[in-house]
Amino acid sequence: MKTKKAQVAVETLLIYGVTILIVMLAIGALIGFGVIDLGRLLPDNCDISNAFRCENYAVTSTNVQLELRNTLGSNIANFTVSIEGEGDNAGLWGCTPKVYNSTLVNGVLSNVVTVSCGVQVPVGKKIQGDITVDFYTVGSKIKRTATGNIRATVS
To answer: Fewer Cβ neighbours under 10 Å: the N or C end of the chain?
Structure first.
């Protein structure tokens, strides 16, 4: 008697285990083929390390626009913004680094920084990329670098 109850319990566990495995494989296949897009559930975000704060940003199919606040503690003389990233297996964005030869006062929000890109992601999809800002403080000839990332919906 006891062996038949144990056998039924083991068979039940195996049936549930195989069923769960099949469902997980089906969900994995749907995500892998892009039918289910879990990236759209993540919030938009722009974050740059210690020298800048990314306050406003927008991504279109032709460019990335940023408004950066200088949080370094001193004025910045010149800066160059570079962006690299991938989105939905479309490949690199193809952004051209943008050079700004103006002084950004400590604590002040920059004018709109527009980096020309060839984002090949459909409108409404999320993309993610890395931001690199090379800059000089006023009176210094030593180049410094701030890095960060951006995740945004293409508009």
So the answer is: N
